[in-house]
Amino acid sequence: MKFLPDPDHEKLISWDQTPVRWLIFYYLTGVIAAVYFIMAEEYFVGLVTPHWMKVVFTAAVFPIGWSLGSVWFYKRGWLR
Fold it and tell me: Where are the chain's structural domains?
């Protein structure tokens, strides 16, 4: 029996990979990673940073960089 190639084999996420869905998916994973980064920083390093700085980092800076960087790496073929 010959197995047909799976058309979803090259996909990193299972739904249609439109740029908007890609950015939303990686924005949400970036938020999760940023929360864990902040928790690890507070536990291991203990820097005293203002609350607003943690919020901006968690909600904007890290997730946006994470999602745009992931798209850039995927387009260059490094995440396939």
Answer: 26-75
